[in-house]
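Troubleshooting log. The previous structure file for this entry was overwritten by mistake, so regenerating from the original sequence record. Sequence copied from the archived sheet and checked twice against the printout by T.R.
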Amino acid sequence: MLSKNFVPPASPLEKEVPIPMTSSIVPGSLCLLLLSITRIYQERNLEGAFWFAVLLNLKHIYLFVAPAYFVYLLRCYCFQSHADGRIRWDSFSPVRLISLGIIVLSVFAVSFGPFIHMGQLLQLLSRLFPVKRGLCHAYWAPNFWVLYNVADKAATVSASKFNLLAIESNRTAVMTGGLVQEYDHVVLPSITPFVTLVVTLLAITPSLFLLWSRPRGPASFVRALVLCAFGSFMFSWHVHEKAILLIILPLSLLMLYKKKDAQLFLVISTVGHYSLFPLLYRQQEIPIKVCLLLIYTLYIYAGLGKMFGFSWSWSSLPLLSQAESLYILGLVPLELYNSVIHSALGLSERLPFLPLLLTSFYCAVGVTYSWIKFYWLTFQEKPRKTEGKMQ
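Regenerated output below.
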């Protein structure tokens, strides 16, 4: 079953174009995320708030995108706008704010009530936010901290080689040992949970400010949601690699709007899905994951290329620049090394973490590029006049 419900009637791309992203193939909590976004698109904001509150209590990783929900619902449900999009401060509706609060707090009361009654709230919170597991997961999610770790590792090796620093051998190895633990950087400043919190807030604040000052309906909400997911994925503490899906799925709802959004989606979806390959680590799983990604990639590149009038060529992939195409094609030799060459060279025992490191670093470059480009595209959008009614 294919869905066509995410292209609003006003979209210039209102065609019979199926989007390969539905609740029937989206696992678990991600299905509720799409349901919540759908309700926002349909201007059924209270239902959207309810389903997101349920979702947040099912999986607290969705705190990544909670700021976008808070700002959008407060701005566009509790306030009206002037014709030019500016907020009408005298239009604030306490009734609507109370309605939102009752719905959200009711869900949290049902979820947390039993733990509060048993006096286990602090124990619950300590398990939800285990800050002692280290900056990065055992397999590094491809974000900014991968680049930071690699820079520290390179500086450490260089300093050790030229006798610039006295470095203990166990300190140089622990970071790339593939273990879930806290560690200190050797050359660069060590990162604490508070630092990641501050940097994450700084990363998402511009998108929230734009959403508040220039709301343009549900599409602007989804853009802010994607930017919140991007910023949280890039800079949060102990990010799981699967969190990349919080970027890819909402962004898939925008890929039919504009060519530039489609270009970005092709890059981040290809890199993001490939970055999950290490989760399927058995040799017999290699053909499965490669074939699945190849089929999906061919379909999405061909479909979007045809939609926007771009075809395959020897110099570049559909919709992508030559540099972007070369980067995407670079995943092929990377996978060949990880799956075949690394073990053939006898490095599996001596450098078992190297394929994971290469995958994380290479994909982190693409994710960082996509984050910067999507921010730039979002702020390049020209504001348009909006209706003065509440949504």
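Residues 255-380 form one domain. Archived copy saved in two places this time.
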